[in-house]
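Technical annex, item 7. During the second reporting period the consortium partners agreed on a shared format for inverse folding records so that results from different sites could be compared directly. Each record opens with the tokenized structure and is followed by the designed sequence. A conforming record, contributed by the partner at site C, is shown below for reference.
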């Protein structure tokens, strides 16, 4: 029997809830760990399977990978007393997957929280609701392992962008990455943005959604980025250096956060435990090693190219920049770090303090058919930022692939 959802209309089953949430999912439901017994970060053992059967446990998606347990507790405690919060981690890497379990003391409290999230999502189209760091949370009842297959089958009826897809247990198109770089209104990230920024972002987002929905061979690259709104005078070398610095700074920031956590653990030791060490040299050495690892962060770029206008063979030289470029990293974590440092950041580099770098994961066309050769007139682009209206990302992406 599916758990009750606590809505006045009893016809709202878990299938109805999944349909409401489907367009906003970040990952497939198979992110739920395949274990019967788990431990929270404070060491408390919990039985996830049995806990899903009484309706007191909720499953939360679209979390940032650096969300803390206390942050979730502070957000959901408005609905009632929380028994525990469990961050879901990858079994191999032990890294957060962007989802979590939240268990309330009372089933009525869980129903109130679920009802609040579902009604808000249905009425506002996910523009408002429970958010953390600008991300709108996707909440549904936790499902036991016995019903995972049924949930996945129901979820496979449609994709996150409205297109039909074949029944698969994985997401080969990497659609869960499509939300990276998106900024919602009335969030901290949206403060200071001018109307023109919103116009350009909405235009890019609309094109991305249409391509992912209408072209089933389109997928989201894990290593390539498309950077919009770069200065016209920027060279390929300067663009490459900017991306290298951004990725390195992003990885160093993550390393600093990890160091801070380790430092708190060291300070939490009792005096008796500290006295068992040969002075404090061991801790000092550990800090030095961590600092060295932070300084030695390495980032490698496969290629970085600014898209330019084509020039006549007689004229020579290079064409005028179109204001956007592509960069491909060797590692996914490098691309993600670069995206998060550059996106909507007016202080990415002091040299370009007056520019905002619109970054999104580049869409790569995996089509075996060759594109039709059509005559394209050489149109002069407006000197203002309206030049972005005529972006030809697919054609430029093909040129970008051909330069490998």
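Designed sequence (site C submission):
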């Amino acid at each position: 029997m599916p758990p009750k959802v606590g809505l006045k209309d009893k016809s709202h089953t878990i299938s109805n809830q999944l349909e409401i949430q489907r367009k906003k999912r970040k990952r497939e439901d198979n992110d739920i760990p395949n274990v019967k017994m788990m431990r929270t970060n404070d060491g408390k053992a919990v039985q996830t399977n049995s806990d899903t059967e009484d309706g007191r446990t909720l499953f939360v998606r679209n979390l940032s990978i650096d969300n803390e347990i206390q942050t979730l507790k502070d957000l959901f405690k408005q609905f009632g007393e929380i028994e525990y919060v469990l961050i879901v981690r990858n079994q191999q890497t032990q890294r957060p997957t962007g989802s979590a379990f939240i268990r309330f003391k009372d089933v009525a409290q869980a129903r109130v929280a679920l009802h609040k999230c579902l009604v808000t999502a249905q009425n506002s189209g996910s523009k408002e609701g429970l958010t953390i760091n600008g991300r709108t949370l996707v909440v549904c009842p936790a499902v036991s392992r016995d019903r995972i297959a049924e949930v996945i089958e129901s979820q496979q009826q449609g994709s996150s962008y409205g297109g039909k897809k074949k029944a698969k247990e994985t997401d080969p198109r990497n659609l869960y990455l499509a939300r990276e770089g998106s900024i919602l209104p009335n969030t901290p990230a949206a403060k200071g943005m001018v109307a023109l920024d919103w116009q350009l972002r909405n235009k890019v987002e609309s094109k991305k959604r249409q391509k992912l929905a209408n072209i089933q061979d389109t997928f989201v690259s894990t290593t390539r980025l498309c950077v919009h709104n770069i200065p016209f005078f920027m060279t390929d070398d300067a663009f490459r250096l900017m991306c290298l610095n951004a990725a390195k700074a992003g990885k160093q920031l993550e390393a600093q956060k990890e160091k801070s956590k380790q430092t708190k653990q060291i300070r939490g030791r009792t005096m008796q435990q500290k006295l068992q060490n040969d002075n404090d040299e061991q801790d000092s050495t550990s800090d030095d090693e961590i600092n060295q690892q932070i300084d030695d962060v390495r980032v490698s770029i496969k290629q970085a190219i600014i898209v330019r206008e084509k020039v006549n063979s007689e004229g020579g030289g290079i064409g005028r920049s179109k204001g956007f470029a592509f960069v491909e990293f060797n590692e996914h974590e490098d691309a993600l770090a670069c995206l998060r440092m550059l996106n909507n950041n007016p202080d990415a580099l002091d040299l370009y303090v007056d520019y905002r770098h619109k970054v999104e994961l580049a869409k790569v066309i995996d089509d075996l058919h060759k594109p039709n050769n059509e005559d394209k007139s050489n149109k002069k682009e407006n000197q203002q930022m309206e030049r972005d209206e005529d972006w030809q990302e697919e054609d430029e992406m093909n040129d970008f692939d051909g330069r490998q």
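The chain has eleven helices and twelve strands. The mean pLDDT is 68. All partners now use this format for quarterly exchanges.
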